[in-house]
Amino acid sequence: MSTNIVTSHLETDVTPESKEGSISKSTYKWKLVWSHVLIMVFIYAGGLYGLYLFLFYCSWKTCLWTYIYGTISFQGVTAGTHRLWSHRSYKAKLPLRIILMICQSMTFQGHIYGWARNHRAHHKFSDTDGDPHNAKRGFFFSHVGWLLVLKHKDFINKRKTICVDDLESDPVVQFQRKYYLPLVILLCYLLPTIVPWYFWNESLSISWYTAAMFRHCVSLNATYCVNSIAHLFGTKPYDKKIGAVENSLISVVTNGEGWHNYHHVFPWDYKTSEFGNSRLNQTTMFINFFAKIGWAYDLKTVAKELIERKAIRSGDGSKFNFENQHNSKAVWGWGDSEMKTEDIEEVKKYNKLIEF
Questions:
Q1: Whole-angstrom distance between the N-terminal and C-terminal Cα of the chain?
Q2: What is the reported pTM?
């Protein structure tokens, strides 16, 4: 998953590959963008102080408000920017797209257009220099360091090859892109601060540092954990030769985004998991609810037979104990030109809208 401090990206002139083909982190030139560093220091300092207030000084109402606001807003990232706009794993009618856009603006993780474009590049060029948060450059880089430095020239060049026609034609995405700054000021900072102060007389200082700063910091780091931990620590039951792993702890803190090995193999599955109805996959429950009322439709998932064949052929044995062989190309989601015919034919769609 991707998140941006700003939406412009600069390049770095580096050649990190060693003679053996492995990456030596020492060969990368860390050209810091000091404005990004200062913004991140501001967010983390405010978030840490907010945690202190949250634990010792917050009223229970403000604590509850912070949790509810954070949980709702994060669906804008998981169900919205990630599963809907980045991977097109389902379709959403206009009211749901507006709700998800509002929720995503609450998180201040970069506008939908830039987030989704970068995330598609992450899947196409995962764990290479074309990946904006290449995990082979280490935990710190993939977690937050990539936001503090000039972007690698390989990422800049390869991102240009990503198709974003659907994002450019979506009026909700373009509206948010145009009015992004006022939207995030209002929804990420002002609204969560004002509600506790106005409705139950919480101090503005405590409201600001807990419901705004602390919540924002937690939201960012939850997303960062998918980029870092879910590419470094876990099992690989579906494809042992890619970096993404299964990590149930990350699924807990991200509403179901921790089944990352599965997700990189089948990025068009709206569940991002073989076991989508698990209590650890709250985002799937969210999408299922809107499917029942008709606002989400064409929910794409993968046939059990295809999952088993993939696990047998390519997994690490944690699902099936067989010798495996990797022979698939990476894709960014539904609609990628390199999707295999067999994958497309075996995708199942639930709650498909009948158009007249």
A1: 36
A2: 0.84
Instruction: Classify strands 347-350 and 296-297 as parallel, antiparallel or unpaired.
Output: unpaired
- Answer for the pair 193, 69: CB distance below 8 angstroms, yes or no: no
Q: Which residues contact 32 (CB under 8 A, 6 or more apart)?
A: 148, 149
> Which percentage of the chain shows pLDDT scores above 70?
88
In a domain, 338, yes or no: no
- Has residue 49 been placed in a domain? yes
127 within a domain of the structure (yes/no): yes
Instruction: Give the total number of structural domains in the chain.
Output: 1
Is 9 contained in some domain? Answer: no
**In degrees, to the nearest 5, what angle opens at C-alpha 68 toward C-alphas 115 and 195?**
100
Name the residue range of residue 195's domain.
34-308
Residue 275 burial (CB count, 10 A)? 13
Q: Kindly report, residue by residue over 157-175, the tens digit of the pLDDT.
A: 999 999 999 999 999 999 9
Read off the pLDDT of residues 46-64 as tens digits, 9 standing for 90 and up: 999 999 999 999 999 999 9
